[in-house]
Design a protein that fits this description.
41% strand
Amino acid sequence: MFTGIVEELGEITAVETLDDACRFRVRGPAVTEGARHGDSIAVNGVCLTVVDQEGDAFTADVMAETLNRSSLGALAVGSRVNLERPTAVGARLGGHIVQGHVDGTGEILERKPSEHWELVRISLPADLARYVVEKGSITVDGISLTVVDAGPDFFTVSLIPTTLALTTLGIKQPGDPVNLEVDVIAKYVERLLGAQGSTK
């Protein structure tokens, strides 16, 4: 489990395209410290397994399902990525519960800078709109954010200077894809209420 608090801005240093998968080499000095084979690291909000670790970089395999459901397929050598290690039991939950299981992708639609923050509008797939509510939580490229406004096919978030400086949302522009993970609690509530209704 993750919390959506990005630890560092890493970089893709190698990409190997396979028949039905892809292998990334990711540089991230902070997240690779103490990392071992089999550990999990979230890359732009996608939970990946460490296959190999050497120096300040790690290698991870990405299967076709993940490439199809996320924006990882658009990454190339030099791409910057948000990195986060799983939260430790007993640690503070600084963001919200994040699984690293991307529900879909959106697109940066508009950026409105202000003196101390920036408002970003992001497209929202129709099948995810029911899980996104004003002042609720959403994960964008692995970043735990609070929804400012929620529409039928978009939502907005406000970004503070720290988020702009330390994550990919500081450099992404209109037209760029982002990974979205909705609040898992909303999905469980929907499923439970649906099951309850079907027993009547």
